[in-house]
């Protein structure tokens, strides 16, 4: 394998010294980029982008052609797993993801297969291999999956939800069924992420986008416990290097201590936490990734720069910070503003690494 030319992202996750704070953006390949919209039109639709390794590679690299990002993230979606379980994922234009089949009962759950990464999700493994080849060591490649709880919400609701009415009703009415579903998803996610690592992903992130919708007790029992199972089953060394794991629970700021005890290398923070206070709470256990409000990118470059400076100062001197947004970049953002953000992180962070 080619040696990495820029490994500051992996070094920061392992709390090793870096010259400047590394930065990437959740959803960095996406609709705010005109070249992404052109590729999607060429492919036909979003799932065709994901399922064709050449297209997935093309859009993964697009933000790296524009900006000096410190990591690439596999272009795919968290909903590939429920699709591979036979639920039939499709996208209604402007409506977000939908499933042809939903999961309601213990019988539905028992009938779900655990996908084989190479047979059922081979297109994702091919995309990882293609992207690694094309990156040629420029920056590390991040693999990812949704958390069991986050995937379960889509499978039970049949798509996106604001209130998680059906998934929470199932959780409280029939906790055994919810546990059975989460257990199957934890097994599926573990082998999916291990497949990505063997195919060449150099770090992995678990997106627990909807963990923050749960009560403190339910979060422990129905989200964190299953992410813990995954972490326990992941390949942690590959090709002679540690493969760091990042856990991102959106809205999880109150539970950082227990997340830090899970054995992951890093926690992703949304913008509701003060990153300095978060650092004091987790101590030396984990690195932190985050946490600018993506809405700051609607403001002028000077305001973006000021907010980047504020977050860098809040984290303070020393190692263990990967800069990111607190959630995905939105389609309305001006690409020039994303550029100003990345430039500001590199320029303003050098003083914290001397
Ligand atoms: O082109 C389009 O219209 C599709 C928009 C889109 C994109 C660009 C979707 C549909 N997925 C993606 C790519 C994607 N999804 C990536 C690519 C890598 C990157 O550049 O970051 C990643 C990491 C995801 C992960 C994902 N998908 C999450 C977790 C992260 C998060 O934002 O919380 C979730 C919740 C999804 C589900 C999903 N897929 C697509 C949409 C619009 C959604 C969210 C719907 C909802 O809000 O419920």
What would your notes on this structure say?
- The chain is an alpha/beta fold.
- It has a single domain (8-353), classed as TIM Barrel, CATH 3.20.20.
- The chain is built from 16 helices and 11 strands.
- The mean pLDDT is 97.
Quantity of strands, as a count: 11
The oligomerization state is single chain
* CATH architectural type: Alpha-Beta Barrel
The name of the CATH topology is TIM Barrel
Mean pLDDT: 97
Radius of gyration: 19 Å
List keywords for this structure.
TIM Barrel, single chain, 13% strand, 354 residues, two-stranded antiparallel sheet
List the helices and strands and how they pair.
Blueprint: H1 8-13, H2 34-43, H3 46-51, H4 53-66, E1 72-73, H5 80-87, E2 89-92, E3 96-99, H6 106-110, H7 117-120, H8 122-135, E4 141-146, H9 148-157, H10 165-173, H11 175-199, E5 203-208, H12 216-233, E6 237-238, E7 241-242, E8 245-249, H13 256-260, E9 266-268, H14 275-282, E10 287-292, H15 301-315, E11 321-325, H16 335-349
Helix pairs in contact: 2-4, 4-8, 9-10, 9-11, 10-11, 11-12, 14-15, 15-16
The site of coproporphyrinogen I has 20 residues, from strand 3.
Catalytic activity: uroporphyrinogen III + 4 H(+) = coproporphyrinogen III + 4 CO2
EC number: 4.1.1.37
Family: Belongs to the uroporphyrinogen decarboxylase family.
